[in-house]
Amino acid sequence: MSNATLHEKTVLISGGSRGIGLSIAKRLAEDGANVVLLAKTAEPHPKLPGTVYTAAEEIREAGGKALPVVGDVREEADVQAAVDAAVKEFGGIDIVINNASAINLEPAEKIDMKRYDLMHDINVRGTFLLTRTALPHLKKSADPRVLSLSPPLNMSQKWLGAAPSYMMAKYGMSLAALGIGAQNQIPATCLWPKTTIQTAAVQYALGGSEMYERSRTPEVYSDSAHAVLTADPAKYAGRTMLCEDVLEDVGVTDFAQYSPGIDPSELEKDIFVD
Prior knowledge:
single chain; alpha/beta; seven-stranded parallel sheet; 11 helices; 46% helix
């Protein structure tokens, strides 16, 4: 594993009140990072645990500093407010993590266009908006990074046909981060898992408890995100990476820690991974 740390680096992440985003934020906090959370969840959800405020407390307990900002990644004013708050509180922004995402796997002929629009507004527009709004401050950082939680751009028929509406939104998310990074010479990386992850989306919206139990824990994402963000900036710049490949790069050989009690053959593969 890398000896580099994110101590005193300022990270702006969309979402992060629970699930993968919170897991990543807490992992970075272990290094002593400053984490700014832009999330909508100010009040407890009837089914889902956590708010932006409870997430901030968990980040502090993990060893970092946290600034919760209630807002919607689709709204320019909210995103600008989060960027301004990060700069005011911590003096700048070093890392942007595009985590906020919406999912719907309905086939093209059945999906309601409002749900289609929602995915594109959050995934694509939100990624573009957050990244570009933070650009003036990323450019001032000594080690700027952009990380998007989105898949490789695989043009095979299998991947394209898995869920076209969701595929377009997630591929757009990858393109937004990589494109802005390339244009501004800021290292940008997209990160995606080989299997489904134990999140509320998997449990309540996709496969229920059975799929949830056959998924890896969010730590496979948070550990690989930490590895990407502490690697030499040129190593993963402009690349779309799988979490497990990144972890193998840094010497991880035991993946059982990310799915305790589950045989690897029983893990649910992600729809974008062969």
